[in-house]
Amino acid sequence: MRLFGITAALALGLAQTASAACNETILRLATDRYIAAQSTGSLQWISEILSDNITYVENGKFLGIASSALVESLRIDRSHSIFDLVQCASFTDLIVTNPASPRVVGAQLWVAGDKVTKIDRIVTTTGDWLFNATGTLHYALREDWGVIPPAQRDSRAVIKAAADAYLDVFKSANVSVPWGTPCARLEGGAYTGKGLPSDSCNLGVIQSYDMPNRRYVIDETVGVASLLLEFGSIGNAPDSHQFRIEGGKLRFIHTMTYCEKKPNCGYTSGPFAPP
Ligand SMILES: *[C@@H]1O[C@H](CO)[C@@H](O)[C@H](O)[C@H]1NC(C)=O
Ligand SMILES: *[C@@H]1O[C@H](CO)[C@@H](O)[C@H](O)[C@H]1NC(C)=O
Ligand SMILES: *[C@@H]1O[C@H](CO)[C@@H](O)[C@H](O)[C@H]1NC(C)=O
Ligand SMILES: *[C@@H]1O[C@H](CO)[C@@H](O)[C@H](O)[C@H]1NC(C)=O
């Protein structure tokens, strides 16, 4: 009886237990350390909080962290992070416009207790999909991804569903997507927004492909979902999609797509070529 009581209490309290188990201070400090490590190119700033058996994934490949792009010092012009206290994970995007080493990097950091157990990253540079770090910085700085007042927040389920619907439309045109108006897509460094109230993200996608292997980090305080995935439409290229959702509808979409066989994953002419 006693045992049953405890089990029932655990089951009922599951969501709360999950979030209580995540220490936000530790998650934020781990994210700060990740940024410091990338900025200096030195693992000393993060090594003490890495789990002994950390999983490190870069552009879809499992690597040893010491031989990863994390040991390259980058002059970071802008960083932006979201925090998922249910899963104890963060997503950070870094923009580096330095012409000597331009980069746009997206990383999901997974924390358990006081250790980072997994870092899953997309690292893009010249030759990757529509890559333009200056363009990314220029447009990202103009957008408002700020905190949404509690009463207006969407649930995690609504945020996830909007993100999934957008990716599902690559497979099937008849998927119902909660398009917001205005909405803008920032892809590589190319921007669809014109600053008009009528700006739309419903501008067509390369069909008809699955977008598999989706890994989610969701922060409902800012209405954002980060998805790392395989971009089916361009040869399952390692990809990051970050969605800002307001009132259940898509407002901003940022993408990074790694082209192993640069330039631009082979799209050098036609509608998907860089400007
Ligand atoms: C979170 O971690 C910090 C730093 O270790 C600690 O001081 C704090 O007590 C922890 N918070 C909770 C709620 O456990
Ligand atoms: C190693 O990683 C696995 C899976 O991420 C985890 O379940 C396990 O607890 C870890 N072991 C140690 C010693 O950290
Ligand atoms: C990159 O973006 C910047 C800022 O929008 C723009 O001035 C520049 O022309 C772009 N470069 C290329 C190669 O498209
Ligand atoms: C949506 O399109 C798919 C094929 O792409 C089709 O199999 C399916 O029946 C369609 N669903 C609806 C509701 O029209």
UniProtKB/TrEMBL annotation:
It comes from Lasiosphaeris hirsuta. Residues 1-20 form the signal peptide. The keyword Signal applies. Pfam families: DUF8021. Residues 152-257 form the DUF8021 domain. InterPro entries: DUF8021 (IPR058334). It comes from the Eukaryota. This is DUF8021 domain-containing protein. The keyword Transmembrane helix does not apply.
